Amino acid sequence: MTAATALEISPAVADPSAVSGGTGAARRPRLARRQSASTRLRAGTLTLLLAGLLILGFVGYLFGLTGLSEARAQHTMFKTFQRTLGQAVAPVGPAPTGTPVAVIDIPALGLHNVVIVEGTDARTLTHGPGHRRDTPLPGQAGVSVLYGRRALFGAPFAGLTALRVGDRITVCTGQGAATYAVASFGSGAQPATATSTNRLVLTTADSAFLPSSTVSVSADLRTGLQPLPGGLPAIADDEHGMRGAIDESVGPLMLWGQVLLALAVLGTLAARRWAIWPTYLCLAPTTLAVLWNVYENAAGMLPNLF
What we know:
Layout: H1 3-14, H2 16-86, E1 100-106, E2 111-118, E3 130-131, E4 143-147, E5 168-173, E6 176-187, E7 199-205, E8 214-221, H3 246-273, H4 276-299
Parallel strand pairs: 2-3, 4-7
Antiparallel strand pairs: 1-2, 1-5, 3-4, 5-6, 6-8, 7-8
């Protein structure tokens, strides 16, 4: 092969761009697809992680923080009820929902000075045991019914089924103290046996994990009867046992959920333009406050006796 022939052939064979051009063009679409798939995988993983954190946070709120909320409400209501007793203006008949109407003591369960609030819907029972408004107050003639939670918000009636026949229950209202003795037990399928016309019935969920019905304790009045002033009101559907305040909770839950989503978007944009940790520190207090409202409204949808 002559030198001239070699010079004519070598550019076509040795030119790197000619050799690698086709291969690079073929690789670029594959690389773009891989990067797109990797981005989608990271986004999906992040979404699942955030969803998991929200669920764990909700569980922590339910079984850790709701008790603190109930304790704070009890402290405030006890002072209010003491003041109304001292002024002789404590309710002795139908009262607005949320009003403290009595204080209950069950020594066998370690319950002392627990405030009973008027009403039995899910939101009202976050403050403590509730009095069913369509029944007389404890100490009055007839069957007085109290609802209390089994697992959340302080779980005041968690040990209800541990009571024994003969255990004493004392309830103080604006008409004085009434003493009851446990007489029988019941469930959602079979109510507690009536052994007296003047009774106190305590009701809660049948389980602290996945409740499906109710359990109850009936106690007979051992002290004198108090008069019942006026008639008794009808109650709403959400004041019956194992009902959640769905209608009252869905709207606020959606609203606070949207606020939480807006905070997440704002935080992402701020972290890209500014810095990650300063952004997190600035948004953390607001995010926690919004999360609290999200969890609070979500809890309101759970059964009122849970």
